[in-house]
């Protein structure tokens, strides 16, 4: 069992600086990066890195520019950021943010009141400027998200690789939808990944998760897995990180309560308990288990069946994430498996997970690809390719949908196609569980012979 000292002052899963040796330097770093970065995403030996960076930057900018142009030609609504702006104005004017209904769709505010405070700056810009700024910010966040994803899987965040992932990922359906609506999904992902990739013993590790939970509740599941891992594996900083995240979340609630007392009382007593508030359960865009059950039962109120299924999946998914953290001595990418498993669990059990919430498809794909490279096994790369096809297919939008609620009359093939994201998520959790349990057993068998020693990637 770790004594906790080895965690201090370094990134999780990274070697100590003292182990670099006298040969460590720019050339050694580049050589290591070429071995670790996914093949084809790093310049060949002898090729100038600067040229690779410029080519990658040019390709990324072209991808972003084309996407921006296509979305403008398609007259995307940026509907959600318009809702955020309306909420910001309501906060400024002292109105009731949870009575607000925005635009012809009559969309309500669904986030905690702390988010309403953060939306106020959107009112400081003209609408056109705000829309452009929201799109530009999400494109920048796509790059940051890609970099943190590579860091999560312990790959050097080489700029050419980061830019390549960002340039391709924005064309996936979840990221396209995030940009289309001006959503905050990438911001949530960046806050969580920033925390989960920091040195565990960093003083304020946990703040990112706490802020994310204060804006949108689902990231609070990370507090559960960190607390459980900390209680089961004493001497590690997981419990302290969970306490920092909890304290930060509590601070967001307190700030909102002081600034918006009426809205806070209404949210925590009524709004948070209304699963239908974000939208219709059977909507084809709802890629949570509740949406699947609603379409399967041809009802807008799946009721008990959904609740029982979600509780079972939540328990299993969180257990998988905790086991992955516990097995990290024999599972080099244990933190990555735990992080993605927890995120997928949150998406599955949330009452409404719109398709654009599934931006965690990017870490899912990169994690499988990284395991394929690490294990020298093409089956993992094939799995990454399948996930890429699923989240890049836009298949759900080929199904009947609209205000007439045709989802309530779907046939069996349509129900199956409409469940493609949850099915991919469940398959990922099953795989993560198998990987984590196997690694934990391997670590338990090794411990008597080498207690207290960390396993290297080669040993696993």
Walk me through the structure.
This protein is mainly α. It is built from 19 helices and no strands. The chain starts with 25 loop residues before the first helix and ends in a 14-residue tail after the last helix. 47% of the residues are buried.
Q: What layout of secondary structure does this protein have?
A:
Layout: H1 26-36, H2 49-73, H3 79-93, H4 113-118, H5 127-152, H6 159-169, H7 173-181, H8 185-196, H9 207-215, H10 221-232, H11 238-259, H12 261-269, H13 289-297, H14 303-326, H15 334-349, H16 361-375, H17 378-391, H18 412-417, H19 420-446
Helix pairs in contact: 2-6, 5-6, 5-7, 5-8, 5-16, 8-9, 9-11, 10-11, 10-14, 11-12, 13-14, 14-15, 14-19, 15-19, 16-17
Would you summarize the structure shown here?
By secondary structure, the protein is mostly helical. The protein is built from 19 helices and no strands.
């Amino acid at each position: 069992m770790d004594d906790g000292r080895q965690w201090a002052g370094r990134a999780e899963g990274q070697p100590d600086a003292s182990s670099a040796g006298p040969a460590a330097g720019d050339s050694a770093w580049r050589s290591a990066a070429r071995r670790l970065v996914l093949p084809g995403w790093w310049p060949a030996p002898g090729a100038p890195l600067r040229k690779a960076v410029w080519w990658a930057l040019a390709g990324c900018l072209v991808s972003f520019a084309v996407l921006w142009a296509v979305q403008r030609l398609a007259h995307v609504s940026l509907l959600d950021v318009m809702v955020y702006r309306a909420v910001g104005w309501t906060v400024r004017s002292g109105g009731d943010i949870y009575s607000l209904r925005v635009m012809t769709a009559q969309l309500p505010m669904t986030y905690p009141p702390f988010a309403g405070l953060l939306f106020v700056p959107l009112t400081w810009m003209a609408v056109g400027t705000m829309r452009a700024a929201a799109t530009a910010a999400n494109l920048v966040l796509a790059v940051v998200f890609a970099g943190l994803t590579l860091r999560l899987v312990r790959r050097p965040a080489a700029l050419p690789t980061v830019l390549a992932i960002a340039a391709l990922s924005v064309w996936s359906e979840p990221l396209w939808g995030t940009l289309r609506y001006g959503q905050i999904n990438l911001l949530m992902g960046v806050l969580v990944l920033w925390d989960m990739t920091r040195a565990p013993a960093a003083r304020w590790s946990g703040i990112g998760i706490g802020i994310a939970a204060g804006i949108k509740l689902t990231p609070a599941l990370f507090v559960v897995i960190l607390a459980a891992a900390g209680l089961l594996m004493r001497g590690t900083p997981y419990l302290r990180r969970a306490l920092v995240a909890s304290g930060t979340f509590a601070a967001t609630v307190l700030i909102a309560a002081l600034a918006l007392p009426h809205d806070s009382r209404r949210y925590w007593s009524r709004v948070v308990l209304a699963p239908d508030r974000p939208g219709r359960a059977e909507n084809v865009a709802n890629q949570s288990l509740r949406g699947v059950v609603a379409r399967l039962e041809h009802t807008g109120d799946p009721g008990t069946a959904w609740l029982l299924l979600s509780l079972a999946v939540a328990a299993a998914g969180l257990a998988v994430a905790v086991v992955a953290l516990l097995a990290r001595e024999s599972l080099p990418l244990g933190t990555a498996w735990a992080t993605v498993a927890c995120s997928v669990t949150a998406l599955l059990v949330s009452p409404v997970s719109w398709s654009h919430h599934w931006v965690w498809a990017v870490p899912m794909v990169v994690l499988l690809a990284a395991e394929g490279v690490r294990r020298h096994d093409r089956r993992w790369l094939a799995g990454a390719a399948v996930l890429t096809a699923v989240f890049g297919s836009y298949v759900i939008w080929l199904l009947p949908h609209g205000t007439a609620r045709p989802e309530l009359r779907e046939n069996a093939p349509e129900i199956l196609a409409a469940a493609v994201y949850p099915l991919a998520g469940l398959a990922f959790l099953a795989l993560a569980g198998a990987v984590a349990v196997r690694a934990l057993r391997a670590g338990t068998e090794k411990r008597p012979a080498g207690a207290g020693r960390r396993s290297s990637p080669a040993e696993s």
